[in-house]
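Q: For a teaching session next week I want to show students how multiple molecules come together into a single three-dimensional assembly. I've collected the sequence lines for a complex. Could you give me the predicted structure tokens for the whole thing so I can convert them for display?
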Amino acid sequence: MSLQLYDTYTRSVRVFEPLRPPEVGLYTCGPTVYDYAHIGNLRTYIFEDILRRVLAFDGYTVKHVMNITDVGHLLSDGDMGEDKIERSARLEGKSAWEVATYYTEAFQRDIARLNILEPTIWCQATDHIEEQIETVRCIEEKGYTYRTADGIYFDTSRLDDYGYLARIDLEGLQAGARVRLGEKRNPTDFALWKFSPEDEKRQMEWDSPWGVGFPGWHIECSAMSAKYLGPYFDIHCGGEDHINVHHPNEIAQTEACYGTRLANFWLHGYFLHLDTGRMGKSLGNFITVEDLVEHGYDPLAYRYLCLNAHYRSPLTFNLETLDAASRALDRLRDLVYGWGTPGEVDAAWLARFTDRIHDDLNIPQALALVWDIGKTDLSAATKKATVRAFDEVLGLQLAEWMPAVVPDEVMELVAQREAARDDKDWVKADELRDAIADAGYEVRDTPEGPLVRKRA
RNA sequence: GGCGACGUAGCCAAGUGGUAAGGCAGGGCUCUGCAAAAGCCUUAUUCGUCGGUUCGAUUCCGACCGUCGCCUCCA
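A: Of course. Below is the structure for the complete assembly, covering every listed component.
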């Protein structure tokens, strides 16, 4: 089976063919760096990482571009409200630039801890102001813009198929109570360029043909993806929340300027839910990677948890599921470690694995194969090599994992205990096991002798 | 008000028009000085409820109940 992916644009599973093989252009909407990323955000980046690894597994050269939104994301009320970055700067007593740098670095640290591959190209919105102005100018020249008191807006009524990605029903939207028009001509119109408020000096603002201000949130993706991947490329990803607003707007901009629908495939990752509902930065109920580490969890246990569910299904998070994932990962690592030196990959098992990841990234089933192959009577060397190949996609570092080095003083206790056991001095042997446990290790007696492991 | 998703064992979660992956937890056995770990076995006659289509539905259709998301910044 060749790679098939669910495309939100067509609402169907389609065979993936690169536009310009062997290269695949992949654009993934990145973070807005006004706060730490939470593990819900990171679920989407894990999904995108899996996608990227599958493409690489298939032999494609992936050119992966991720933006860093460091300006222009407003707090509320559509195109009104305070800029999130500037707000954090005010609250934290830092400059907007310092805030952006700080949270960008935190994000990069977090994805590294989850073994998410870095994009080929990082691009920051504030490094591409010129490109964004050019894109707005292009849209303006084609006649899709109008000016209001606070900015340059995109007139979505000029596009016949505006919102096709979301199957937006304009009449339905207008019937809704939550839409506020202001000076906008249509509820779906959005800002391309915002003017700085007259009564305050923004930290982040630039000159433009329309006046001093800053770019609207959506324009950076159209401008930067065109710069690095061209106006029509293979795959564009984001969270499910982007299906309704952000991505239709990106498509509208690119369609107006270049006449393309931006990307051949549109993939969206679904949310992580708490028992009480979604996790949101603005809801204040979020958990970070740092929180997990502080509670003694390996970040990869969270990655394992995410791999257990399909990317297009909501995933429920709570401590019980995290503990289950953590335990499963520990067992798996120990199991794979015990297989020793890798031999030859088993072609039949690799083919089964490939079919599953090709089936719209059915990672839960692919992961189940790791457990299944472990129960076969294939040689340990074959299992090890095959699982190592699987892990190119799973990214759980199964084959790399090594037990923690046991300190000499603990090994000394183990030796003393062995001596006591030889003497059948069970009382002393049990005391020594307690001492080993106090040191943070556990000893397992096997036919081959004692095995020492750091206690979980 | 509009659009959409989901509801599968104690928990997380795959999946299929022909009778339910995997993990965690639980139970049993083996092993063991005792343990721990591990291995083996086991755990849903059943997939929210009620109808319909069908030889047959958890899987398709409809209604209903429930949970949730988006429509406003949002992964």
